[in-house]
Write a structure and sequence with these properties.
This protein is mostly helical. It folds into 2 domains: 305 residues, no CATH class; 33 residues. Helices cover 76% and strands 1% of the residues. It has 15 helices and 2 strands. It has a two-stranded antiparallel sheet. A hairpin with a 2-residue loop joins β1 and β2. It is globular and about 65 Å long. The termini are far apart.
């Protein structure tokens, strides 16, 4: 049934001559590459708690997705059925395992958290976020790179992560003294996840002498995804211990937030090759993720705080001597009128006695 659904979408793509394919590819690419910049900007400039909630949910979701994906090792739809022909260059770019959908798992916590956090003040943001989430999920089927099961499980992982992190934030609001224990536990869990994906066995099936899925390439993605989860724990500890910044929606902070967004984009685009050269394929992906997330959580907030303009002192209001004179004159006038009234009363009393 799932393959038949993909074949139906494939027929539609061919009928419209792939008119929607570039748009669907753009929606998918944005979700896994640049979407993290949106909650980062919110974290820096608008609402620290909402931004942090979105970023933590995102990192936890992609890390869990990586472990599930590398555990089940389910092949892509076109490997399972040769009739499926994915759109564009998916055969060369989407070389990893299929289950669950990484794009959907990535998009769900970010778009979902934005929809939840904005539902009261900015409903239009919630509506747009939900539409973008559904488009991202559908694009994975439309492009022929994931089955409906892959997408549904990705949505489920993202939603469960949102609920779990929301519950954790609520608990830590009541018990802030226990946050460091959870951060330490996150680092330990991440380290164990890295150890797990490094040591487990992977299928090595060949077709025409070619390896269907390269486990080493998939482990690279896993190292990067888990690295983000470890990084958010470390970055949060650094920020809460030493930085302690408070976002303010000012013109100065908006400029700094946009600058941070550009720098984050630059790091995403350029860090891959240097870290790969210095640390190798797997650990290079890990270090790249660590740098980007710690930059978002702790480094850029520290720079914003250090370069913040000092608050202007309140000017004292002084009253000039000239401004006092009318008041004095008015008071003397009032006193004079009061004396004249008392004289009139006394004269009336005297005349009555006579």
């Amino acid at each position: 049934m799932d393959i038949e659904y993909l074949l139906l979408l494939q027929s539609f793509r061919e009928y419209i001559n792939d008119a929607l394919t570039p748009f669907m590819e753009m929606i998918s690419l944005f979700a896994v590459t640049y979407l993290i910049i949106v909650p980062a900007f919110i974290y820096w400039c608008v609402d620290k708690r909402s931004g942090l909630y979105t970023i933590v949910s995102y990192n936890a979701s992609v890390a869990f997705n990586a472990v599930v994906k590398l555990t089940f090792c389910i092949y892509r739809p076109w490997i399972r059925d040769s009739r499926v022909m994915p759109a564009g260059d998916a055969i060369t770019t989407a070389t990893g395992y299929s289950f669950p959908s990484g794009h959907t798992t990535t998009a769900t916590p970010i778009y979902g958290a934005l929809a939840v956090c904005a539902r009261k003040k900015w409903r239009w943001v919630s509506v747009i976020s939900i539409i973008c989430l559904l488009l991202t999920a559908f694009s994975r089927n439309y492009l022929g790179v994931h089955t409906p099961q892959d997408v549904c499980v990705g949505l489920t992982i993202g939603c469960l992560t949102l609920w779990g992190i929301a519950s954790l934030f609520k608990y830590l609001t009541a018990h802030p003294e226990k946050e460091n224990y959870f951060l330490l536990a996150g680092v330990i869990i991440g380290a164990l996840a890295i150890l797990y994906i490094s040591l487990k066995s992977y299928p090595t099936d060949y077709v025409d002498g070619k390896l269907l899925v390269d486990p080493e390439r998939m482990k690279k993605d896993g190292f990067g995804d888990i690295g983000m989860f470890i990084a958010v724990c470390i970055g949060r500890f650094i920020e809460k211990t030493w930085v302690k910044f408070k976002p303010e929606l000012t013109k100065d902070n908006l400029v700094k937030g946009l600058t941070g967004a550009v720098l984050t984009f630059f790091l995403i685009e350029t860090l891959g090759q240097p870290t790969k050269f210095l640390f190798g394929v797997h650990w290079g992906a890990f270090v790249k993720s660590m740098i980007i997330i710690i930059f978002i959580i702790a480094v850029w907030p520290a720079i914003m705080k250090a370069t913040a303009r000092p608050a202007e002192p309140v000017k004292e209001v002084t009253v000039s001597a000239e401004s006092k004179k009318p008041a004095a004159n008015s008071s003397s006038t009032k006193a004079g009128s009061g004396r004249s009234k008392s004289k009139k009363r006394r004269s009336k009393k005297a005349s009555s006695r006579k």
